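ingest -> validate -> predict -> emit
validate: passed (alphabet ok, no gaps, 536 aa)
predict: started
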Amino acid sequence: MKASRISAGLSVLGMGGVAAYDLLQKKHSLLRNFPVIGHGRYLLEKVGPELRQYIVTSNDEERPFSRDQRAWIYASSKLENNYRGFGTDNDIEYTEGYPVIKQRTFSTAVPPSGAHSGEEVRMPSAKVLGGPRGRAKAFRPASIINVSAMSFGSLSGPAIEAINSGVKLVGAMHNTGEGGLSDHHRQGGDLIFQIGTAYFGCRDEQGRFELARLIDLVQSAPVRAIEIKLSQGAKPGLGGVLPAAKITPEIARIRGIPQGVDCVSPSRHGEFSDVDSMLDWVETIGDATGLPVGIKSAVGHSDFWTELARQMADGSRGVDFITIDGGEGGTGAAPMVFSDMVSLPFRVGFSRVYREFAETGLADRVTFIGSGKLGLTENAIVAFALGADMVNVAREAMLAIGCIQSQKCHTDRCPTGVATQDPWLVRGVDPTLKSVRLANYIRTWRRDLYKITEAAGVPHPALLTVHDIEMLYGQMDARPMADVFGYQPGWGLPSQREIDELAQVMLETAPQGGSAPESPHAEGDTSAHPREVPGH
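emit:
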Protein backbone atom coordinates (compact mmCIF):
# COMPACT_ATOMS: atom_id res chain seq x y z
CA MET A 1 0.00 0.00 0.00
CA LYS A 2 2.81 2.35 0.94
CA ALA A 3 4.62 1.58 -2.32
CA SER A 4 1.52 2.33 -4.37
CA ARG A 5 1.09 5.68 -2.59
CA ILE A 6 4.69 6.56 -3.36
CA SER A 7 4.21 5.56 -6.99
CA ALA A 8 1.03 7.62 -7.29
CA GLY A 9 2.73 10.57 -5.67
CA LEU A 10 5.66 10.40 -8.04
CA SER A 11 3.27 10.23 -11.00
CA VAL A 12 1.39 13.31 -9.81
CA LEU A 13 4.65 15.09 -9.18
CA GLY A 14 5.89 14.18 -12.68
CA MET A 15 2.69 15.37 -14.33
CA GLY A 16 2.88 18.57 -12.31
CA GLY A 17 6.39 19.16 -13.58
CA VAL A 18 5.30 18.59 -17.19
CA ALA A 19 2.31 20.91 -16.68
CA ALA A 20 4.52 23.63 -15.24
CA TYR A 21 6.95 23.34 -18.15
CA ASP A 22 4.11 23.42 -20.69
CA LEU A 23 2.57 26.55 -19.13
CA LEU A 24 5.87 28.43 -19.05
CA GLN A 25 7.24 27.48 -22.48
CA LYS A 26 6.33 29.59 -25.50
CA LYS A 27 7.35 27.33 -28.39
CA HIS A 28 4.13 25.31 -28.66
CA SER A 29 0.83 27.18 -28.35
CA LEU A 30 -1.13 23.95 -28.02
CA LEU A 31 0.87 22.81 -24.98
CA ARG A 32 0.70 26.28 -23.41
CA ASN A 33 -3.07 26.22 -23.64
CA PHE A 34 -3.57 22.52 -22.92
CA PRO A 35 -0.73 21.35 -20.68
CA VAL A 36 -0.04 17.60 -20.40
CA ILE A 37 -2.98 16.41 -22.51
CA GLY A 38 -1.69 18.38 -25.52
CA HIS A 39 1.18 15.91 -25.77
CA GLY A 40 -1.36 13.34 -26.96
CA ARG A 41 -1.69 15.22 -30.22
CA TYR A 42 2.04 15.01 -30.92
CA LEU A 43 2.08 11.34 -29.98
CA LEU A 44 -0.73 10.60 -32.46
CA GLU A 45 1.07 12.62 -35.14
CA LYS A 46 4.26 10.66 -34.53
CA VAL A 47 2.65 7.23 -34.82
CA GLY A 48 0.15 8.32 -37.48
CA PRO A 49 1.66 6.31 -40.38
CA GLU A 50 1.58 3.13 -38.32
CA LEU A 51 -2.00 3.74 -37.13
CA ARG A 52 -3.25 4.48 -40.64
CA GLN A 53 -1.63 1.36 -42.03
CA TYR A 54 -3.25 -1.03 -39.59
CA ILE A 55 -6.41 0.66 -38.32
CA VAL A 56 -7.73 3.58 -40.36
CA THR A 57 -7.24 2.92 -44.08
CA SER A 58 -8.72 0.23 -46.27
CA ASN A 59 -6.66 -2.51 -47.92
CA ASP A 60 -5.96 -0.36 -51.00
CA GLU A 61 -5.69 3.18 -49.64
CA GLU A 62 -2.33 3.38 -47.90
CA ARG A 63 0.57 4.89 -49.87
CA PRO A 64 3.12 4.35 -51.23
CA PHE A 65 2.30 0.65 -50.76
CA SER A 66 -1.17 -0.47 -49.73
CA ARG A 67 -1.86 -3.08 -47.09
CA ASP A 68 -2.70 -5.62 -49.80
CA GLN A 69 0.56 -4.94 -51.63
CA ARG A 70 2.66 -5.18 -48.49
CA ALA A 71 0.85 -8.34 -47.40
CA TRP A 72 1.60 -9.98 -50.76
CA ILE A 73 5.31 -9.15 -50.47
CA TYR A 74 5.51 -10.30 -46.84
CA ALA A 75 3.69 -13.57 -47.58
CA SER A 76 5.86 -14.22 -50.64
CA SER A 77 9.07 -13.62 -48.70
CA LYS A 78 7.99 -16.05 -45.97
CA LEU A 79 6.66 -18.68 -48.41
CA GLU A 80 3.19 -18.26 -46.92
CA ASN A 81 -0.07 -18.43 -48.87
CA ASN A 82 -0.21 -15.25 -50.98
CA TYR A 83 -3.50 -16.12 -52.66
CA ARG A 84 -6.71 -14.19 -52.04
CA GLY A 85 -10.26 -15.33 -51.42
CA PHE A 86 -13.64 -13.86 -52.32
CA GLY A 87 -12.53 -11.83 -55.33
CA THR A 88 -10.73 -8.54 -55.83
CA ASP A 89 -11.29 -5.55 -53.56
CA ASN A 90 -9.77 -3.18 -56.14
CA ASP A 91 -12.16 -0.60 -57.54
CA ILE A 92 -11.95 -1.85 -61.11
CA GLU A 93 -15.44 -0.59 -61.98
CA TYR A 94 -14.54 3.07 -61.62
CA THR A 95 -10.73 3.40 -61.60
CA GLU A 96 -9.57 5.20 -64.75
CA GLY A 97 -6.69 3.52 -66.56
CA TYR A 98 -6.92 0.22 -64.67
CA PRO A 99 -4.90 -2.38 -66.66
CA VAL A 100 -6.48 -5.73 -67.50
CA ILE A 101 -4.46 -8.63 -68.94
CA LYS A 102 -6.25 -10.50 -71.71
CA GLN A 103 -6.02 -14.26 -71.38
CA ARG A 104 -5.78 -16.43 -74.51
CA THR A 105 -8.13 -19.39 -74.90
CA PHE A 106 -5.82 -21.49 -77.09
CA SER A 107 -2.04 -21.23 -77.14
CA THR A 108 1.00 -23.18 -78.25
CA ALA A 109 3.20 -21.47 -75.66
CA VAL A 110 3.39 -23.34 -72.37
CA PRO A 111 5.62 -22.20 -69.46
CA PRO A 112 7.71 -24.53 -67.31
CA SER A 113 5.79 -26.82 -64.97
CA GLY A 114 7.76 -25.29 -62.11
CA ALA A 115 5.50 -22.25 -62.36
CA HIS A 116 2.93 -24.24 -60.42
CA SER A 117 4.79 -27.01 -58.62
CA GLY A 118 7.00 -24.77 -56.50
CA GLU A 119 10.07 -25.93 -58.42
CA GLU A 120 12.77 -23.33 -59.08
CA VAL A 121 12.09 -21.50 -62.33
CA ARG A 122 14.54 -19.44 -64.34
CA MET A 123 13.73 -16.23 -66.15
CA PRO A 124 16.73 -14.90 -68.13
CA SER A 125 16.83 -11.65 -70.03
CA ALA A 126 15.74 -11.76 -73.65
CA LYS A 127 18.72 -9.57 -74.59
CA VAL A 128 22.47 -9.94 -74.13
CA LEU A 129 23.64 -6.96 -72.08
CA GLY A 130 26.43 -5.25 -73.98
CA GLY A 131 26.12 -7.58 -76.97
CA PRO A 132 25.13 -5.02 -79.62
CA ARG A 133 28.08 -2.77 -78.68
CA GLY A 134 30.49 -5.72 -78.60
CA ARG A 135 31.60 -5.20 -75.01
CA ALA A 136 34.31 -7.65 -73.99
CA LYS A 137 32.31 -8.76 -70.94
CA ALA A 138 28.83 -8.80 -72.47
CA PHE A 139 26.49 -11.35 -70.89
CA ARG A 140 22.88 -12.50 -70.74
CA PRO A 141 21.49 -11.62 -67.27
CA ALA A 142 20.15 -14.74 -65.57
CA SER A 143 17.21 -12.89 -64.01
CA ILE A 144 14.85 -10.26 -65.36
CA ILE A 145 14.15 -9.30 -61.72
CA ASN A 146 17.02 -7.52 -59.96
CA VAL A 147 17.55 -5.21 -56.99
CA SER A 148 17.70 -1.50 -57.70
CA ALA A 149 20.18 1.12 -56.50
CA MET A 150 20.20 1.62 -52.73
CA SER A 151 23.45 2.84 -51.22
CA PHE A 152 25.19 1.68 -48.10
CA GLY A 153 24.57 4.68 -45.91
CA SER A 154 20.95 5.01 -46.87
CA LEU A 155 20.62 1.33 -45.92
CA SER A 156 22.40 -0.34 -43.03
CA GLY A 157 25.31 -2.72 -43.47
CA PRO A 158 23.31 -5.83 -42.49
CA ALA A 159 20.53 -4.81 -44.91
CA ILE A 160 23.04 -4.54 -47.77
CA GLU A 161 24.52 -7.91 -46.79
CA ALA A 162 21.05 -9.49 -46.75
CA ILE A 163 20.27 -8.14 -50.22
CA ASN A 164 23.56 -9.22 -51.75
CA SER A 165 23.37 -12.70 -50.22
CA GLY A 166 19.75 -12.95 -51.33
CA VAL A 167 20.42 -12.14 -54.98
CA LYS A 168 23.22 -14.71 -54.96
CA LEU A 169 20.71 -17.39 -53.94
CA VAL A 170 18.50 -16.69 -56.97
CA GLY A 171 21.02 -15.59 -59.60
CA ALA A 172 19.88 -11.98 -59.66
CA MET A 173 21.94 -8.76 -59.62
CA HIS A 174 22.38 -6.08 -56.97
CA ASN A 175 22.89 -2.42 -57.85
CA THR A 176 25.30 -0.79 -55.40
CA GLY A 177 23.71 2.64 -55.50
CA GLU A 178 25.87 5.74 -55.83
CA GLY A 179 27.39 5.42 -52.32
CA GLY A 180 30.32 3.25 -53.34
CA LEU A 181 31.13 -0.44 -53.09
CA SER A 182 31.43 -1.49 -49.45
CA ASP A 183 32.48 -4.72 -47.75
CA HIS A 184 28.77 -5.38 -47.20
CA HIS A 185 28.30 -5.68 -50.97
CA ARG A 186 30.89 -8.46 -51.15
CA GLN A 187 28.75 -11.46 -50.18
CA GLY A 188 29.02 -13.18 -53.56
CA GLY A 189 26.07 -11.66 -55.40
CA ASP A 190 26.62 -10.13 -58.85
CA LEU A 191 26.82 -6.34 -58.81
CA ILE A 192 26.00 -3.38 -61.01
CA PHE A 193 28.25 -0.53 -59.90
CA GLN A 194 26.51 2.81 -60.00
CA ILE A 195 28.44 6.02 -60.59
CA GLY A 196 26.72 9.12 -59.28
CA THR A 197 27.60 12.78 -59.58
CA ALA A 198 29.95 12.62 -56.56
CA TYR A 199 31.90 9.61 -57.99
CA PHE A 200 32.02 7.80 -54.64
CA GLY A 201 34.41 4.86 -54.84
CA CYS A 202 36.14 6.10 -57.99
CA ARG A 203 37.20 9.64 -57.13
CA ASP A 204 40.40 11.29 -56.01
CA GLU A 205 40.99 13.35 -52.87
CA GLN A 206 39.44 16.42 -54.52
CA GLY A 207 36.28 14.55 -55.48
CA ARG A 208 37.16 14.25 -59.17
CA PHE A 209 36.51 11.09 -61.18
CA GLU A 210 39.54 8.82 -61.53
CA LEU A 211 39.42 6.07 -64.15
CA ALA A 212 42.24 4.01 -62.60
CA ARG A 213 40.36 3.75 -59.31
CA LEU A 214 37.24 2.63 -61.14
CA ILE A 215 39.17 -0.11 -62.97
CA ASP A 216 40.72 -1.37 -59.72
CA LEU A 217 37.36 -1.30 -57.95
CA VAL A 218 35.37 -3.27 -60.53
CA GLN A 219 38.14 -5.84 -60.78
CA SER A 220 38.01 -6.41 -57.00
CA ALA A 221 34.37 -7.57 -56.93
CA PRO A 222 31.85 -9.43 -59.15
CA VAL A 223 30.79 -6.27 -61.00
CA ARG A 224 28.92 -7.21 -64.20
CA ALA A 225 27.94 -3.75 -65.48
CA ILE A 226 28.30 -0.04 -64.75
CA GLU A 227 25.35 2.34 -64.44
CA ILE A 228 25.82 6.12 -64.71
CA LYS A 229 23.16 7.81 -62.61
CA LEU A 230 21.82 10.95 -64.27
CA SER A 231 18.82 11.27 -61.97
CA GLN A 232 16.31 9.20 -60.02
CA GLY A 233 12.56 9.26 -59.51
CA ALA A 234 12.67 10.44 -55.90
CA LYS A 235 14.65 13.60 -56.59
CA PRO A 236 15.34 14.13 -60.31
CA GLY A 237 17.66 17.03 -61.06
CA LEU A 238 18.82 17.08 -57.44
CA GLY A 239 21.85 15.43 -55.90
CA GLY A 240 21.46 12.61 -53.40
CA VAL A 241 21.41 13.48 -49.71
CA LEU A 242 22.81 11.45 -46.81
CA PRO A 243 22.01 13.17 -43.48
CA ALA A 244 24.97 13.78 -41.18
CA ALA A 245 23.39 11.58 -38.49
CA LYS A 246 23.75 8.54 -40.76
CA ILE A 247 27.42 9.10 -41.70
CA THR A 248 29.54 6.65 -39.72
CA PRO A 249 33.35 6.41 -39.90
CA GLU A 250 32.93 3.41 -42.24
CA ILE A 251 30.69 5.35 -44.62
CA ALA A 252 33.01 8.34 -44.54
CA ARG A 253 35.93 6.07 -45.48
CA ILE A 254 34.10 4.34 -48.34
CA ARG A 255 32.78 7.57 -49.82
CA GLY A 256 35.77 9.76 -49.02
CA ILE A 257 33.71 12.38 -47.19
CA PRO A 258 33.88 14.10 -43.76
CA GLN A 259 31.68 13.22 -40.81
CA GLY A 260 29.39 15.65 -39.03
CA VAL A 261 27.87 17.34 -42.08
CA ASP A 262 25.19 16.30 -44.55
CA CYS A 263 26.57 14.58 -47.64
CA VAL A 264 24.93 16.34 -50.59
CA SER A 265 25.95 15.14 -54.04
CA PRO A 266 26.13 17.64 -56.93
CA SER A 267 23.05 17.84 -59.13
CA ARG A 268 25.08 17.44 -62.35
CA HIS A 269 28.10 15.44 -63.50
CA GLY A 270 31.49 17.08 -63.83
CA GLU A 271 32.77 14.67 -66.52
CA PHE A 272 30.27 15.66 -69.21
CA SER A 273 27.83 18.44 -69.97
CA ASP A 274 25.83 17.23 -72.97
CA VAL A 275 24.91 14.06 -74.86
CA ASP A 276 28.03 14.18 -77.04
CA SER A 277 30.48 14.35 -74.13
CA MET A 278 28.42 11.81 -72.16
CA LEU A 279 28.71 9.24 -74.96
CA ASP A 280 32.45 9.85 -75.17
CA TRP A 281 32.70 9.12 -71.43
CA VAL A 282 30.54 6.00 -71.77
CA GLU A 283 32.88 4.64 -74.43
CA THR A 284 35.95 5.49 -72.36
CA ILE A 285 34.58 3.51 -69.42
CA GLY A 286 33.38 0.65 -71.62
CA ASP A 287 36.74 0.32 -73.39
CA ALA A 288 38.72 0.52 -70.14
CA THR A 289 36.67 -2.02 -68.17
CA GLY A 290 35.12 -4.20 -70.89
CA LEU A 291 31.83 -3.98 -69.00
CA PRO A 292 28.41 -2.98 -70.35
CA VAL A 293 27.75 0.68 -69.51
CA GLY A 294 24.31 2.24 -69.17
CA ILE A 295 22.49 5.22 -67.75
CA LYS A 296 19.74 5.66 -65.18
CA SER A 297 17.36 8.58 -65.37
CA ALA A 298 13.95 9.85 -64.52
CA VAL A 299 12.03 11.42 -67.43
CA GLY A 300 11.35 15.12 -67.77
CA HIS A 301 11.99 17.09 -70.96
CA SER A 302 12.24 14.83 -74.02
CA ASP A 303 14.98 16.72 -75.86
CA PHE A 304 17.71 14.73 -74.09
CA TRP A 305 16.26 11.42 -75.29
CA THR A 306 15.72 12.68 -78.82
CA GLU A 307 19.33 13.81 -79.00
CA LEU A 308 20.62 10.57 -77.46
CA ALA A 309 18.80 8.47 -80.07
CA ARG A 310 20.05 10.76 -82.85
CA GLN A 311 23.69 10.50 -81.77
CA MET A 312 23.49 6.73 -81.33
CA ALA A 313 22.03 6.21 -84.80
CA ASP A 314 25.35 5.73 -86.64
CA GLY A 315 26.40 2.93 -84.24
CA SER A 316 29.82 4.38 -83.36
CA ARG A 317 28.87 5.17 -79.77
CA GLY A 318 26.04 4.24 -77.46
CA VAL A 319 24.80 3.15 -74.07
CA ASP A 320 24.25 -0.57 -73.53
CA PHE A 321 21.24 -0.17 -71.29
CA ILE A 322 18.82 2.50 -70.13
CA THR A 323 17.19 2.35 -66.70
CA ILE A 324 14.06 4.48 -66.52
CA ASP A 325 12.98 5.44 -63.01
CA GLY A 326 9.40 6.58 -62.53
CA GLY A 327 8.48 9.59 -60.45
CA GLU A 328 6.64 7.27 -58.05
CA GLY A 329 9.96 5.71 -57.05
CA GLY A 330 12.03 6.69 -54.06
CA THR A 331 13.94 5.59 -50.98
CA GLY A 332 15.95 7.60 -48.50
CA ALA A 333 15.57 11.38 -48.18
CA ALA A 334 14.10 13.85 -50.68
CA PRO A 335 12.27 17.19 -50.50
CA MET A 336 8.53 16.53 -50.52
CA VAL A 337 7.86 18.57 -53.65
CA PHE A 338 10.40 16.47 -55.57
CA SER A 339 8.83 13.20 -54.40
CA ASP A 340 5.35 14.47 -55.21
CA MET A 341 5.69 16.53 -58.38
CA VAL A 342 8.98 16.27 -60.29
CA SER A 343 9.46 13.77 -63.17
CA LEU A 344 6.89 11.70 -65.02
CA PRO A 345 5.41 8.50 -63.60
CA PHE A 346 6.90 5.31 -64.98
CA ARG A 347 4.35 4.34 -67.63
CA VAL A 348 4.28 7.79 -69.24
CA GLY A 349 8.03 8.40 -68.98
CA PHE A 350 9.14 4.94 -70.11
CA SER A 351 6.81 4.83 -73.11
CA ARG A 352 8.08 8.22 -74.31
CA VAL A 353 11.70 7.11 -74.14
CA TYR A 354 10.99 3.75 -75.77
CA ARG A 355 9.15 5.45 -78.64
CA GLU A 356 12.19 7.64 -79.36
CA PHE A 357 14.34 4.54 -79.87
CA ALA A 358 11.68 2.48 -81.64
CA GLU A 359 11.01 5.23 -84.17
CA THR A 360 14.72 5.45 -85.03
CA GLY A 361 15.13 1.66 -85.21
CA LEU A 362 17.45 1.52 -82.18
CA ALA A 363 15.29 -0.35 -79.65
CA ASP A 364 16.98 -3.69 -80.36
CA ARG A 365 20.41 -2.21 -79.58
CA VAL A 366 19.49 -1.26 -76.03
CA THR A 367 18.42 -3.25 -72.97
CA PHE A 368 15.59 -1.36 -71.31
CA ILE A 369 15.26 -1.62 -67.53
CA GLY A 370 12.24 -0.37 -65.60
CA SER A 371 12.27 0.98 -62.06
CA GLY A 372 9.77 2.68 -59.78
CA LYS A 373 7.25 0.56 -57.82
CA LEU A 374 7.56 -2.33 -60.29
CA GLY A 375 8.02 -5.02 -57.62
CA LEU A 376 4.33 -5.81 -57.86
CA THR A 377 3.33 -8.28 -60.57
CA GLU A 378 0.61 -6.11 -62.10
CA ASN A 379 2.98 -3.15 -62.51
CA ALA A 380 5.80 -5.30 -63.85
CA ILE A 381 3.53 -6.88 -66.47
CA VAL A 382 2.66 -3.44 -67.85
CA ALA A 383 6.37 -2.53 -67.88
CA PHE A 384 7.26 -5.66 -69.88
CA ALA A 385 4.45 -5.00 -72.33
CA LEU A 386 5.74 -1.45 -72.87
CA GLY A 387 9.18 -2.83 -73.79
CA ALA A 388 11.11 -3.29 -70.55
CA ASP A 389 13.54 -6.20 -70.76
CA MET A 390 14.20 -6.29 -67.00
CA VAL A 391 12.84 -4.62 -63.86
CA ASN A 392 14.62 -3.38 -60.75
CA VAL A 393 13.03 -3.29 -57.29
CA ALA A 394 14.08 -1.19 -54.29
CA ARG A 395 11.40 -0.56 -51.66
CA GLU A 396 9.85 -3.95 -52.36
CA ALA A 397 13.23 -5.54 -51.56
CA MET A 398 13.32 -3.50 -48.35
CA LEU A 399 9.87 -4.81 -47.43
CA ALA A 400 11.01 -8.37 -48.10
CA ILE A 401 13.86 -8.02 -45.61
CA GLY A 402 11.76 -6.45 -42.85
CA CYS A 403 10.78 -2.85 -43.68
CA ILE A 404 7.32 -1.94 -42.31
CA GLN A 405 6.85 1.32 -44.28
CA SER A 406 7.25 3.49 -41.18
CA GLN A 407 8.54 6.23 -43.55
CA LYS A 408 11.37 7.21 -41.22
CA CYS A 409 14.19 6.51 -43.74
CA HIS A 410 15.39 10.13 -43.59
CA THR A 411 15.53 10.33 -39.77
CA ASP A 412 18.01 7.53 -38.96
CA ARG A 413 15.28 6.04 -36.74
CA CYS A 414 14.09 3.17 -38.94
CA PRO A 415 12.51 0.84 -36.35
CA THR A 416 13.48 -2.36 -38.17
CA GLY A 417 17.14 -1.45 -38.76
CA VAL A 418 16.90 -1.50 -42.57
CA ALA A 419 17.43 2.22 -43.28
CA THR A 420 19.47 3.44 -40.33
CA GLN A 421 23.01 3.42 -38.98
CA ASP A 422 21.94 3.38 -35.30
CA PRO A 423 23.80 0.39 -33.75
CA TRP A 424 20.88 -0.62 -31.53
CA LEU A 425 18.35 -0.58 -34.39
CA VAL A 426 20.72 -2.16 -36.93
CA ARG A 427 21.08 -5.24 -34.74
CA GLY A 428 17.46 -6.11 -35.59
CA VAL A 429 18.46 -7.21 -39.11
CA ASP A 430 19.72 -10.79 -39.35
CA PRO A 431 21.38 -10.99 -42.80
CA THR A 432 21.25 -14.79 -42.90
CA LEU A 433 17.50 -14.95 -42.33
CA LYS A 434 16.62 -11.86 -44.37
CA SER A 435 18.64 -12.98 -47.40
CA VAL A 436 16.42 -16.05 -47.62
CA ARG A 437 13.34 -13.83 -47.34
CA LEU A 438 14.49 -11.75 -50.32
CA ALA A 439 15.28 -14.88 -52.33
CA ASN A 440 11.83 -16.30 -51.52
CA TYR A 441 10.17 -13.08 -52.68
CA ILE A 442 11.98 -13.13 -56.04
CA ARG A 443 11.31 -16.84 -56.58
CA THR A 444 7.61 -16.45 -55.78
CA TRP A 445 7.35 -13.42 -58.02
CA ARG A 446 8.93 -15.33 -60.89
CA ARG A 447 6.30 -18.07 -60.52
CA ASP A 448 3.50 -15.48 -60.55
CA LEU A 449 4.96 -13.96 -63.71
CA TYR A 450 5.02 -17.39 -65.35
CA LYS A 451 1.38 -17.92 -64.47
CA ILE A 452 0.53 -14.63 -66.17
CA THR A 453 2.51 -15.51 -69.29
CA GLU A 454 0.74 -18.87 -69.47
CA ALA A 455 -2.65 -17.17 -69.29
CA ALA A 456 -1.65 -14.66 -71.97
CA GLY A 457 -0.24 -17.40 -74.19
CA VAL A 458 3.45 -16.42 -74.33
CA PRO A 459 6.47 -18.26 -72.89
CA HIS A 460 8.26 -15.30 -71.28
CA PRO A 461 7.24 -11.92 -69.79
CA ALA A 462 9.42 -10.01 -72.26
CA LEU A 463 7.17 -11.37 -75.05
CA LEU A 464 4.06 -9.73 -73.66
CA THR A 465 3.02 -6.73 -75.73
CA VAL A 466 0.69 -3.76 -75.52
CA HIS A 467 -1.84 -5.86 -77.43
CA ASP A 468 -2.17 -8.21 -74.45
CA ILE A 469 -3.41 -5.50 -72.08
CA GLU A 470 -6.34 -3.10 -72.14
CA MET A 471 -6.94 -0.07 -69.93
CA LEU A 472 -10.36 0.25 -68.32
CA TYR A 473 -12.21 3.56 -68.23
CA GLY A 474 -15.02 2.82 -65.85
CA GLN A 475 -17.59 0.21 -66.81
CA MET A 476 -18.30 1.73 -70.21
CA ASP A 477 -15.04 1.53 -72.14
CA ALA A 478 -11.68 -0.21 -72.42
CA ARG A 479 -8.86 0.84 -74.73
CA PRO A 480 -5.96 -1.31 -75.98
CA MET A 481 -2.72 -0.20 -74.37
CA ALA A 482 -1.21 0.21 -77.83
CA ASP A 483 -3.68 3.04 -78.49
CA VAL A 484 -3.20 4.63 -75.08
CA PHE A 485 0.59 4.92 -75.45
CA GLY A 486 0.80 5.32 -79.23
CA TYR A 487 2.67 2.07 -79.97
CA GLN A 488 3.01 0.65 -83.47
CA PRO A 489 2.86 -3.10 -84.28
CA GLY A 490 5.98 -4.92 -83.11
CA TRP A 491 7.03 -2.28 -80.59
CA GLY A 492 7.84 -3.59 -77.12
CA LEU A 493 9.15 -6.93 -78.41
CA PRO A 494 12.76 -8.09 -78.81
CA SER A 495 13.97 -8.84 -82.32
CA GLN A 496 13.04 -12.18 -83.90
CA ARG A 497 16.63 -13.36 -83.50
CA GLU A 498 16.49 -12.58 -79.78
CA ILE A 499 13.14 -14.32 -79.46
CA ASP A 500 14.58 -17.45 -81.09
CA GLU A 501 17.67 -17.37 -78.87
CA LEU A 502 15.55 -16.86 -75.76
CA ALA A 503 13.35 -19.82 -76.67
CA GLN A 504 16.43 -22.03 -76.92
CA VAL A 505 17.75 -20.79 -73.58
CA MET A 506 14.38 -21.48 -71.97
CA LEU A 507 14.27 -25.00 -73.42
CA GLU A 508 17.74 -25.74 -72.11
CA THR A 509 17.31 -24.36 -68.58
CA ALA A 510 13.70 -25.02 -67.61
CA PRO A 511 11.54 -28.14 -67.27
CA GLN A 512 8.63 -28.12 -69.69
CA GLY A 513 5.01 -28.39 -68.75
CA GLY A 514 2.08 -28.71 -71.08
CA SER A 515 -1.56 -29.55 -71.53
CA ALA A 516 -3.33 -32.57 -70.13
CA PRO A 517 -2.46 -35.84 -71.92
CA GLU A 518 -4.33 -36.41 -75.18
CA SER A 519 -7.02 -39.01 -75.37
CA PRO A 520 -7.19 -41.42 -78.35
CA HIS A 521 -10.05 -39.28 -79.71
CA ALA A 522 -8.16 -35.94 -79.72
CA GLU A 523 -8.16 -34.10 -83.04
CA GLY A 524 -5.29 -32.05 -84.42
CA ASP A 525 -1.81 -31.37 -83.08
CA THR A 526 -1.92 -29.96 -79.55
CA SER A 527 1.81 -30.22 -78.85
CA ALA A 528 3.51 -27.22 -77.25
CA HIS A 529 5.94 -25.07 -79.18
CA PRO A 530 7.45 -22.56 -76.73
CA ARG A 531 9.40 -20.80 -79.50
CA GLU A 532 6.23 -19.32 -80.98
CA VAL A 533 4.67 -16.06 -79.87
CA PRO A 534 0.94 -16.39 -80.59
CA GLY A 535 -0.80 -13.38 -82.00
CA HIS A 536 2.34 -11.26 -82.50
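The CA atoms of residues 75 and 81 lie 6 Å apart.
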